[in-house]
Amino acid sequence: MKSINKILNICSTLPKNTRLISTTSSNLNADDGWFSKLLVRRIEPTKESHSRMLSDKEIVYALHTHNIRPDSVDKYLKNYKTSVEFVESRKADLGCELVGSWTVSVGDMDQALHLWRYVGGFEKIDKAKILFRENPDYRALEKERGNFVRSRHLQYLLAFSFWPNGEPRQPNNIYEIRSYSLKPGTMIEWGNNWARGLTYRRAQNEAFAGYFSQIGRLYNVHHIWCYKNLQARRETRESTWRNPGWDECVAYTVPLIREMHCRILEPTEFSPTQ
Hints:
Layout (H helix, E strand, L loop, with lengths): L1 H11 L6 E4 L15 E4 L8 H5 L4 E10 L4 H17 L1 H4 L1 E11 L4 E9 L1 H14 L1 H10 L3 E11 L14 E9 L4 H11 L9 E9 L4 E8 L2 H12 L4 H8 L3 E11 L7
Antiparallel strand pairs: 1-2, 3-5, 3-6, 4-5, 4-10, 6-8, 7-9, 7-10, 8-9
Helix pairs in contact: 3-6, 7-9
């Protein structure tokens, strides 16, 4: 009870705009239990956007999520491969390139994810949209693709500056995309803690890329990891928990999350990263 009163007394002295996040403190006794995870951190006002502080806004990523009709997966993949070839043949004009293309093997089944990179920001995206709309061949491909999908979703993302930038991997790998819905106003805290947390995930080179949303579902974060197989994923994750400090990273970030889920991905034959 003394521990509870100690924390409550501390909290009662804080300014109204102080945010509490999960952390640890050596000043609290070991018997404080989960209350020792509460520590005050003031988030100072800033005139700079959070996205500018966390990323390079001149490179924008488009994450296309397509839910495919179960009886049309092969037709869909053939169509999308043709679309990728179309874009690659006009790369100089469109200013975009495919980073990765995957189908979901565990999680939301009959789903495909395609991640595109636009160097030049939203100006390049605006120009590409016009070129796509005015090209009859591309419009025909999109119209045909509509017969194979149940629904689609598009997010424009920025990359966290402290993550790897999604360079192509050699065959054969599986990927895991862990998607988080954060509480509004917590993106800087997330970035600060994960910038440290990634230092505990370097041994197996499993970190592929990390992004946060700009347009679409907001306060969404996507972390993409690369493993040889599911067993390698298990061993890598268990090894990470033995690293001193990783548990604190998790303790800091869990209170920032509203919802999370993961999907296991397999690269398509036309994906640049395998």
